[in-house]
Design a protein that fits this description.
Layout lengths: L2 E4 L7 E6 L6 E12 L6 E7 L9 E5 L4 E3 L5 E3 L5 E3 L5
Antiparallel strand pairs: 1-3, 1-5, 2-3, 3-4, 5-8, 6-7
Length: 92
């Protein structure tokens, strides 16, 4: 099982603004820092993108939802565009 942690020190939502080269429109990308335990000595930090209107995840321990995975055009397993987390205690 994949363990992901959002800790209280740095799980606050941040907004990254980018200006579209094509349209000049300002695009906002909401994200949070998280840590994945993948078998190494230390967890690795990564970024979780938040969808429009989605609430930020509170600090806690999570695993990946089944909705976080997809199958690509050539049959390879891949992550979905937006990763979804499930609190670890609720995962069955």
């Amino acid at each position: 099982m994949i363990k992901i942690e959002l800790n209280t020190q740095d799980c606050a939502e941040t907004v990254k603004q980018i200006t579209s080269k094509k349209t000049g429109e300002i695009l906002n990308f909401r994200e949070q820092k998280a840590y994945i335990y993948n078998g190494g000595i230390y967890p690795k930090q990564f970024i979780i993108g938040l969808e429009e209107g989605q609430l930020a995840y509170p600090a806690g321990v999570y695993t990946l939802s089944e909705d976080s995975f997809d199958v690509g055009d050539f049959g390879a397993l891949k992550f979905s565009r937006n990763i979804k987390l499930v609190p670890l205690k609720e995962h069955k």
